[in-house]
Amino acid sequence: MLSRIAESFFWLGRYVERAEATTRLLAEHHQLLTEDRSVPDAVGCAVLLESLGLPDTGTDTPRALVRAVVGSEADPTTISGSVASARANARAVRDSLSQDTFEALNAAHLAISRGIAFATSPGVALHEVLERLLVVNGIVDWTMPRDEAYHFLVLGRELERIDMIGRLLAMRHDLMWPSSGAAAALRAAGALSPFLRSGKPITGVNARHFLVLDSTFPRSMRSCAADAEEAVRGLQRLGVSDGSLLLREVGMLRSELEYAGLPETEGLDRYITESTEAATRATNEVNRAFFRQHGTVVWSH
Amino acid sequence: MADVPTFIAPFDEMLLPDGAARPSHQDLCTAIADFGAKGLQERATQRDAYLDRHGITFTLGERERPLPMDLIPRVIPADEWRRVEAGVIQRIRALEAFLADIYGPGKVLAEGLVPRALITTSSHFHRQAWGISAPNGVRIHVSGIDLIRDEEGRFRVLEDNLRNPSGVSYVLENRRTLAHVLPEVFAHHQVRSVSEYPLRLLEALRAAAPVGIIDPTVVVLTPGVHNSAHYEHAFLARNMGIELVEGRDLYCRENTVWMRTTSGPEPVHVIYRRIDDDFLDPVHLRPDSVLGIPGIVNAARAGNVTIANAIGNGVADDKAVYRYVPRLIEYYLEEDPILPNVDTYDLGDPDQRAFVLANIERMVVKPSDGSGGYGLVMGPSASDAELTRAAADIEAEPRAWIAQPVVTFSTCPTVVDDGDVQPRHVDLRPFAVNDGTRVYVLPGGLSRVALPEGSLVVNSSQGGGSKDTWVIADDVAAPSPSAEDVPEADNGVAVAWPPASPAERANSPVAHDDRLIQQERQQQQQHEAQDDGRKGAPSAEVPPC
To answer: In DSSP terms, which residues pair with B220 in a beta bridge?
Structure first.
């Protein structure tokens, strides 16, 4: 397939995942700041902005935080930015996407760009956006043929997931909000019920372990690494030319997390840092191996 | 005997008699006023959508419906709460001692403090439970003591619920719902969290495990999906991370309870059951029960399983025993009751019975073993026919009924249909969890509100609604962490962040560099060219040298 198309699919996967994870994170954070007033709002806002890599320009109310993280289309680290970028990539490959997928993504984009009620009732509005994004992933899962495009999309999604879980964990909910933080962190990853089923007491350390190393929860870093590896193997089965370094990167990450056992806190922090770094290296390697294009020769400006 | 009071204005929790807001409610009052009727109506619509979407329901008759939650929270200041908490704990300790006595030595009966006949005629007294020991001394693992505030604002106990008090899931869901649809009102309050309840409950249930079991298997036993509180059963099981089982999932063999699983039978050690005593075991209790587990009473007696709450607790929350609770507190704890009862007439006493019958239009008459507001006759609003029937019922079987003077309990501002705010009567059910070493009282509890104007019946089965209940934190709050010491890991090593630069987090189709903008523009021109067909072939778009 065309490198350009492959690249769009990869980033489509990443942006949809980023939009979804950021929306969930913001919705939960807004609820946390509303319910648990033990941390000053300015600090509570700063933590989220910092971990998302967004500039903090004196954001000090939950409402202003929503405004900042929903953000503008120009910044692909915000919610509207990542939805807009996902849509831009989907548009570029519209012919290879099912009509349903594009429509679902378009609906999410329209909902945001028409300014649904983020200001008056952020919880409700964020939930609406989240639902639409979930529909996109659902349709992708049951309409896309398991071809190269699909594997690129999944690879992008899983690498982004690792990155987003890393950002969530960097917020250290458990230290900031000792009474409600661990549950909030799990909820922000959609992991509260699955965690509770595991029967472990809900503590900060257990929650972090779960999000990094659990073998059954599909959003744990470990599961994401395994799925990313599977996507690369899928690409190789379909005969892509160059993927050995990429496979090595995700395969090493997967096996490291799979055989990690139960490291102490110190080791866990190392795994978190290493995983997000490995995800970044893998992205660079995907770029190098599959998407690198010659720059357009510009004859005049 | 005190005279039956005529109408006295109810205590309003937000407003002073002169119409000004109480100091504790100032902020809330301002926040609500800011919304106006239209704003509140808008939020009410969002709330209904939220409750529907999340399926936060209770089943009434055949229909599943959301429990109506009022938008205006009820605020309880820290000092008032301390009294409630102490009073509830005291009551639970006394009732635990009473149950241990009734199902054991029976000292209180031998000394004649409580008439033996009152206990033996109680439909909730189960001889089958006599002598079953409670591993950690707890029979009332979970309780809901219903409180009201009288005309002077004093909290009083209206009734004890020591069997299967329900509603705690709505306490937790109300908090999340309100934070979701009305976040603004939280801004000026430090509200104590209710979210740790499932954790406390699980700890208490684990602590009640049979002797020698280190890692007990705890389950929630539900009658099934058709039960009105099924939502709550599922909620608790999910939030404790344990199995929700029905009677048919369990069986007994060799005085041990087993659960049928795909990997074979697994022993069960603690059963938080949400089915009534009568249905628990067809061998010992109601023989026609299909919800229970044959042999479970034997297993409990053998000490292989703990049933929580214990069988036979109903004898202590029988409305005829209620009158004796203040005396039980003095007897077992040698303390003065912190929370007084509501005056209750002893219908077994001929003089008192005659007085009640003469004044029945000013009484509340309740069946002594009832709950959920079923069978209750509210004197002032009842028809003559209802009153005549109630009088006849009392004459026929005085033991089956109790009578209390109508207490005009407190009111809270409540949003009514058109977005208007009006006072409505509320009660309060604080939930208490006893783990054997201490009693945890969930800060807040379920405030039930009687939605029809002037109504005093708050039961959800009778059309009552609920309110989020805020207990304000004490002023001495724990020091909150600052931004600086947060991203540090436990071992002092800062997590390197952010791992990827913004450039690595975006791809070219949206990167805004000049070259691509030019490309984009040309793509657009090309598109126009194809549209109007006047600009010639695409090659014409190549810039001239």
So the answer is: B244, B272
